[in-house]
DNA sequence: TACCATT
């Protein structure tokens, strides 16, 4: 079926709305395709914007690479498509991890070529890309991949901090790019800052002892929940913990006050009788000062996958663990254990825009710009079985329109989600969460 | 002060 020396290609810069069937015509003009797979998130099934492509013939792969790589830009993308042998094909060349550099503090006007010239003296460059925003302006940083680790290290040694580029606010940064684990962590931190939660490392507030004690007590419960749900799915676990924390913080005005008041179920954990910290930072610091976090050495989390470990890791750094106070605090009965992710684990495919029965579908507005299907899904997973989660995207720019729909398989979940999340403040905005209007609602007859 | 996308 395929030649013994066939090459598996990695294809990058694919719009997330294109599936295999859409991509096939683009690639089959270079030969018969043996396999074409869009890369999706293992747990959520979300399109990652790239794919693997194997032609039956080696020659077809070479033709496709030379015709397409960096040559053509797919609609909605701001960089040309990437077509090159997958990392797994690398013979002799080391993993990209230890030879790929992140370069920061570049001038906004520096191009790929400018950066390449700067790094050329240190060795052969495989890849050199300035990162750009949706409007095409440089983010002032780039990736530079050398063929070997030593060359990359040499570039760091002589270039890092060596000069200040025109227009840059400080001297050139040259370091190894984040590993996958670090990227996960960084994403979590972004979400954390979206929610107005800050690193305890940067703050120095006095500890809240009573609060800290209460939180400490809750940690036991939290560990139990984590242990339980770990059997379902790591993401579901994380989502559940995260959402309970968020919802509870929200309910207590620690990071936000919902427009729709949530009545704390009093006395579930005795929390309501404790002095509430006036803001998230104090809570964070209090916990951190005592060195408490829910994922100690013996925690059941120890054996979980990298994604979850990334979350667990973040708790060390960002003090996310400072917000567990919350258990049982959400007025709304806490949603049944989410199972959608676990199911999807077997069948990650065709997560189309399914709609639930009337009363099961909710409309969410004022989503953060950077929330995609995946983030919104995670946000609502804890309220029940999610049938679909769709953020609407501008077709021209591929940018979120900041609203979307989530469908559950039962009305109670939808109500729980509305109750807990309507008015939830994120940054300067509050989520609007309400039942989706039935299709024919506004039609006269 | 930013980290694209590798099953």
Q: What is the global morphology?
A: globular
Into which percent range does the helicity of residues fall?
25-40%
**How is the largest sheet built, in terms of strand order?**
2-3-1-4
Can you count the beta strands? 14
The CATH class of the domain at 100-181, by name, is Alpha Beta
The Cα radius of gyration reads: 24 Å
Class based on secondary structure composition and strand pairing? alpha+beta
- Termini separation comes to 58 Å
CATH architecture of the domain at 100-181: 2-Layer Sandwich
Strand portion, in percent? Answer: 15-25%
**What characterizes the major β-sheet?**
4 strands, antiparallel
Order of H and E elements: EHEEHEEHEEHEHHHHHHEHEEHEEE
CATH fold assignment of the domain at 100-181: Alpha-Beta Plaits
Q: Report the average pLDDT across residues.
A: 70
GO molecular function, one term: RNA binding
Subcellular location: Cytoplasm; Nucleus
Family: Belongs to the CELF/BRUNOL family.
Organism: Cottoperca gobio (Frogmouth)
What descriptors fit this protein?
CUGBP Elav-like family member 3 isoform X6, DNA-binding, alpha+beta, Alpha-Beta Plaits, single chain, RNA binding, four-stranded antiparallel beta sheet, nucleus, globular, 445 residues
